[in-house]
Amino acid sequence: KQEVTQIPAALSVPEGENLVLNCSFTDSAIYNLQWFRQDPGKGLTSLLLIQSSQREQTSGRLNASLDKSSGRSTLYIAASQPGDSATYLCAVGDYKLSFGAGTTVTVRA
Amino acid sequence: NAGVMQNPRHLVRRRGQEARLRCSPMKGHSHVYWYRQLPEEGLKFMVYLQKENIIDESGMPKERFSAEFPKEGPSILRIQQVVRGDSAAYFCASSPRISGRDNTGELFFGEGSRLTVL
C-alpha cells in the first residue's frame, strides 16, 4: 500500500522567501506524481504533473522534482507571495491517487 | 473550457435521508473519479467510472454508497440512509484518458460537494 508523507505540516514565511515543500512515498513503482493546491473550502487546483519517466517539471515560479529511487519529490516556489498561501498536496499513482496530508503554507506580507 | 462542475456545493441532510451528488466532467473527458475527504483526513479514492461502466469501485463503502455515469447526463454519487460519519467533502475529478496507462492522464478536480449530516 502506497503511503505518502508531506513535511512540514505547516510553514510560515515572509513574502519574497523561497518555499521548499517535501513529499515522500513508500512505493517507487509509481505512474505519476501530481502537486495540487487547495484553498480553504475550495477544490484542488492541479499545479504540476510529473510522469514517472520525468525528473522535473516547471511552471512559472513553480518547479517540482522527482527522485523515484529515493521516493521523494520536492516542490519549489520561488519568491513567495501572500497569494501563495494555501495547502499544498502531493499525490502519487495512476487514477487511484494516494494523497499526502498536505503542507499548509502562510506567506506573511 | 469549463472545469469539472459539481453540484450542489453544500448539502445538508438528516440521518436516514438520501444524498445525491452530481458531477459533470470537463469537456472531452470520458473518465470520472470520485474522492472523499473526511474531516482532518486526506483525500481517499472511492470509484472510477466511464460512460455506463464502473471500472474500479475498490474504495467505495460496501453498503449505502453507489455511483453511476449514464450515457447522457452527469455522474451521480448516491448515499442512502446517511449517517453522521458520511459528513465530508466529496470531490469529483475527470481526465481525458486513463491515468497511468500512457502516463499522461492528469486528473482535474472540481470544487467539491460538502455534505453535512445532522
Structural class of chain B: mainly beta
Main beta-sheet strand count, sense and barrel state of chain B:
7 strands, mixed
Largest interface: chains, residues each: A-B, 27 and 32 residues
Strand content of chain A: over 45%
User: Mind summarizing the main beta sheet of chain A?
Assistant: 6 strands, mixed
Q: Could you spell the SSE succession of chain A in H and E letters?
A: EEEEEEEEEEE
Sheet-strand content of chain B, in percent, reads: over 45%
N- to C-terminal distance of chain B = 37 Å
N-to-C order of helices and strands of chain B: EEEEEEEEEEE
Shape of chain A: globular
Alpha plus pi helix count of chain B: 0
Q: Which whole number gives the mean pLDDT of chain A? A: 93
- The helicity of chain B comes to under 10%
As a whole number of angstroms, the C-alpha radius of gyration of chain A is 13 Å
Per DSSP E runs of 2 or more residues, the count of β-strands of chain A stands at 11
Please estimate the helix content of chain A: under 10%
Overall description:
The complex is a heterodimer of chains A (109) and B (118). With 109 residues, chain A is mostly beta strands. Chain A is built from no helices and 11 strands. In chain A, 0% of the residues lie in helices and 58% in strands. In chain A, the strands form 2 sheets. In chain A, strands 2, 4, 5, 9, 10 and 11 form a 6-stranded mixed beta sheet that branches. Chain A has a 5-stranded antiparallel beta sheet with strand order 1-3-8-7-6, with no helix packed on it. In chain A, 38% of the residues are buried. With 118 residues, chain B is mainly beta. In chain B, the strands form 2 sheets. In chain B, strands 2, 4, 5, 6, 9, 10 and 11 form a 7-stranded mixed beta sheet that branches. The A-B interface holds A 4, 31-32, 34, 36, 41-46, 49, 51-53, 89, 91, 93-102 and B 4, 6, 31, 33, 35, 41-45, 48, 56, 58-59, 91, 93, 95, 98-101, 103-112, 114.
